[in-house]
Design brief:
15 helices; homodimer
């Protein structure tokens, strides 16, 4: 039986809500942030690091894993979990976004997307059926429909065509999932429609008619102003059934997460905490700073005095600055641990605030803290 | 009171022996291998990783730490231990070898070595007194005398001049250590003399007269044939008092360690396990192999089926090959954990074999295993 979403608390001040769902690899409490494990590893971290940093569920990239190491390598392990030694739930994307952003897209047709690998230039055809089958081979707990992503900005005609193709592909994905996936694996539909609120509404309604276990907003955080992203969320999220999880793909900053949870979103993924960690940027309750700054040279304080992560518990800013400026490998790991922990704790704080029905008070404190000095 | 070396077992077949010593940061059982933590980090590993991999004591590089992050950064932490969050003993080298191999050596004088930093070209003078003072600032548990290293091959005249300078510097180091170091910090003298057995004998005798808590052989593993290295060890080690630890600097391969333990050596350091790990090479009881080899693409076995390390316990060769070929950061860490564990377990096996007075049987098995297939 596929994913059942249980809502445990509903904010009376905002559409924000707390919930949970079970998978074959354990439960997930929402709102949740999912660290991105592109190539079968959340960069620089072990599964134990991730669990200690509070990760409940991670994301795998179908496009990347299909190209490297390839399904024939992962399949004998029974899926991605055992291959990478991650015991918890995994959500896989469909590959659509990476074909759009990384590969050379050769041809988009009714059948699927023909593209050239960004690794070796080899040609591949990804159809909706094939995307689902790859995700089934990865033993994904939450499978995503193949969608067509468009650039920002886009004209209405292109946004409409992409959403209509995405809708037809969603039907094919749904049929493949129904017949081939293990019963506990869920399939989420992806709402497209660019930055046109009425198209987002049209996309949401078409997908809701197909009855997915969960719904996602795709094509956000692609360069649009935050106000526009929030306007799209304001339009689309209320069209989705309240008893299904709502996932905003590829978003975002701590402020984005707070604003989208406030609008009733439940799930997020983003490379921001890990990628920025590798560039020396720390997220803290008081805002962000870059550890390479010379003012940290002799700073014996932890990154965030209020943080309980492994990095803040054991290392000073002076040491982390030294590692980072010397380009030591340990820097990437310690920085990533902190940033993932910051994101998971931000979500935990939101869950608690919703459960205690004080989300607006939480939100005010969140912004007030960030106005203070981070480092 | 400085380091007291207790011999707990003496092989009756060979000069190999087992012992232990205490430091202000814990005890060490010998023979011991010390992973190299060049810049205040054993590359890619946390102190917890090192402890789990069996490390008892690590090495810090005075030259590197003096240049980056600098003593003024480390001093306020009370030393290197707290700065890098390593709770165990630390041995620091003197900086001599790095000035010889990394820096641009500008002038070697009676006073000390004038060199240009390999980082920013800045000029520095390292005297014997300054080397000891830096190591005291690092709160090193075992301090090394500043020595003059020479290239291989070298003419006798140069080898003699370097050993005589090293001997005079050793007296100055000894005086600085006696007056400035905390009482538990030990100072080791370094025997030089190039590949000339009689010069090694002369160097050993001069240093033994000064009564150091421990003695090292420097200037080995600099390109000479293994037979020559072992000949030097055969000459020098018997000249050293049996109640003091004997440290062979910068050595070496697993075979080197076995042969030098057989000759009565107690301590070793080398970048080989960690550097080679970062180049994809694994050490195992059956020999070495490189994980990038295509034959491991779908190999579900661990690196070494007989190994109990974190990496072998949780990951397959197929996964490690995938990480390594994709240049994922996690590869460097998982590979390093295995190789350090291999080295520490090799030493543990030797300690046990000596304690049970079956070192020659151990040595035969060691070579027989390596003749079998590693991968």
């Amino acid at each position: 039986m596929t994913l059942q979403f249980q809502i445990s608390a509903q904010s009376t001040e905002t559409p924000a809500r707390c919930g949970s769902f079970e998978t074959a690899h354990g439960g997930v409490k929402t709102p949740v942030f999912m660290p991105v494990g592109t190539l079968g590893t959340v960069k620089a971290l072990t599964p134990e690091d991730l669990l200690q940093a509070g990760a409940q569920i991670i994301l795998g990239n179908t496009y990347h894993l299909y190209l490297r190491p390839g399904c024939d390598v992962i399949a004998p392990f029974g899926g991605l979990h055992r291959f990478m030694h991650w015991p918890g739930p995994i959500l896989t994307d469909s590959g659509g976004f990476q074909i759009f952003s990384l590969a050379k897209l050769l041809k988009m047709s009714e059948d699927g997307a023909t593209f050239q690998s960004h690794i070796d230039g080899s040609r591949h055809l990804l159809t909706p059926e094939k995307s689902i089958e790859i995700q089934i081979t990865l033993d994904s707990d939450i499978i995503m429909c193949l969608d067509q992503c468009i650039a920002y900005p886009a004209v209405r005609e292109d946004a409409l065509a992409a959403l209509e193709l995405t809708t037809r592909w969603a039907q094919r994905c749904h049929a493949t999932w129904k017949t081939k996936a293990r019963p506990e694996a869920a399939l989420f539909g992806i709402i497209q429609g660019g930055m046109f609120p009425d198209l987002r509404q049209q996309s949401a309604e078409a997908l809701v008619d197909m009855d997915f276990p969960g719904y996602a907003l795709g094509g956000l955080s692609v360069g649009e102003p935050t106000e526009l992203m929030l306007e799209i969320a304001d339009t689309a999220l209320p069209r989705l059934p309240s008893d299904r999880p709502r996932y905003i793909m590829g978003v975002g900053t701590p402020e984005n997460l707070v604003e989208l949870v406030a609008r009733g979103a439940d799930m997020f993924d983003c490379v921001l905490p890990t990628r920025n960690a590798r560039n020396g940027q720390f997220f803290t309750s008081r805002g962000t700073f870059n550890i390479s700054n010379a003012r940290f040279r002799q700073d014996q304080d932890p990154v965030d005095p209020d943080c309980a992560c492994y990095t803040c518990h054991n290392y000073s800013r002076a040491y982390l600055r030294h590692l980072y400026t010397a380009r030591e490998l340990l820097a990437y790991r310690l920085n990533s641990i902190h940033n993932i922990h910051y994101y998971t704790q931000l979500m935990a704080q939101m869950r608690q605030a919703i459960a205690e029905d004080r989300f607006n008070a939480f939100r005010r404190t969140f912004y007030a803290m960030r106005a203070s000095d981070a480092g």
